[in-house]
From TrEMBL:
The keyword Cell membrane belongs to this UniProt entry's keyword annotation: no
Species classification: Bacteria, Bacillati, Bacillota, Bacilli, Lactobacillales
Family the UniProt entry places it in: Belongs to the FPP/GGPP synthase family.
Transmembrane segments: none
GO biological process terms on file: isoprenoid biosynthetic process
Pfam families (UniProt xref): polyprenyl_synt
Organism superkingdom: Bacteria
Name of the featured protein: Polyprenyl synthetase family protein
Cofactor(s) of this protein: Mg(2+)
UniProt xrefs under InterPro entries: Isoprenoid_synthase_dom_sf, Polyprenyl_synt, Polyprenyl_synt_CS
């Protein structure tokens, strides 16, 4: 976990410390090479943001036991890591969080099975957290949205004419949905006040949207040593993220001369695309949208009961907008 981040939030830091140890026992696979890779992913410095938001929303209620909350938080991180393993297959990524990916070392087939295995481990933890069919159905619905969002991305790959609305729909079905699930399940499992439950999903969707937008920004303007992934990795795999989508309308002709090459683009072509995105202010435009979505989340958080968890939610959400990894 990112201890530097979470030590600023003593209300949840101890739970996340214990969660990290619990996760290593929650994911058991007899195939030792794949198992060791999964454990490396779980130990390799993830921020545990989704479990963190889960615990912060759970602080608004008191109904759940520590064991139920730990299983609920573990489910979210396991689901997240499972989607990352599948993402690496789709994007043909060589590394993840500084660790060589499963698909690169053991092949795409084994990576797909590893991701599928993580989904079974996810539902195992869901059932440890609750036997309420309504809450279980919420997990099923969220996973359905996440997976259809992943499939929906295929329709946007290499699409120079993709709209902002199409981009937002795709983000809502992937990154944002998992944040929304984390916030809602924290409130639901702890039986927080109805007003908190009503706002939780909206807050999670806004946070997740802003988070993905900043991820897109870092793909063009980040430091690979901090982000632990190559710059312009999305562009190489045909994913036209927010800074590029906002810059393309400013000079469709010049962008098209490069993007029409698709997967045949050279390193020089990719550098030229990045230069065009810079020239036409794609990154500042994307940062403004990320700020707008963060403000939307902050406004919703401000409506929650005035307790420490609300202050922590506000501070954490504000910090994520200025992160560099």
């Amino acid at each position: 976990m990112d201890r530097q981040l979470w030590r600023q939030f003593p209300q949840v830091a101890p739970q996340l410390e214990m969660l990290q140890t619990y996760l290593l026992d929650a994911v058991k696979l007899e195939n030792q090479p794949i198992h060791s890779k999964i454990l490396a992913l779980l130990q390799s410095g993830g921020k545990l943001l989704r479990p963190g938001y889960f615990y912060l929303f759970a602080a608004f209620g008191t109904a759940a036991t520590a064991e139920q909350l730990r299983a609920g938080a573990a489910a979210l991180e396991i689901l997240h890591v499972g989607t990352l393993i599948h993402d690496d297959v789709i994007d043909e990524s060589p590394t993840r969080r500084g660790v060589r990916t499963i698909q690169m070392k053991y092949g795409q087939r084994n990576a797909i099975y590893a991701g599928d295995f993580m989904f079974t481990a996810y539902f195992n933890q869901v059932l440890k957290s609750t036997n309420d069919i309504t809450q279980i159905q919420a997990h099923i619905d969220a996973m359905h949205k996440i997976l259809t969002g992943e499939l929906g991305q295929m329709a946007l790959n290499y699409q120079e004419n993709a709209t902002l609305d199409a981009y937002l729909d795709e983000v809502a079905g992937k990154t944002a949905e998992l944040f929304a699930l984390a916030c809602f399940q924290g409130a639901q499992l702890s039986d927080a006040p109805q007003g908190v439950k009503d706002q939780a999903r909206k807050i999670g969707l806004a946070i997740g949207t802003a988070y993905q937008m900043l991820d897109d920004i870092l793909d063009y303007a980040g430091d690979p040593k901090k982000t632990k992934k190559p710059i312009l990795e999305d562009l190489r795999s045909g994913v036209y993220s927010l800074p590029l989508l906002l810059a393309i309308p400013q000079n469709r002709h010049d962008f098209h001369q490069l993007l029409k090459k698709k997967h045949h683009m050279t390193a020089e072509d990719i550098d030229q695309v990045r230069n065009l995105v810079t020239q036409y202010d794609g990154v500042p435009a994307a940062r403004k949208l990320a700020t707008d979505w963060t403000i939307r989340a902050q406004q919703l958080i401000a409506t929650l009961p005035d307790v420490q968890a609300r202050e922590d939610l506000m501070r954490l959400t504000t910090m994520l907008l200025v992160r560099d990894h």
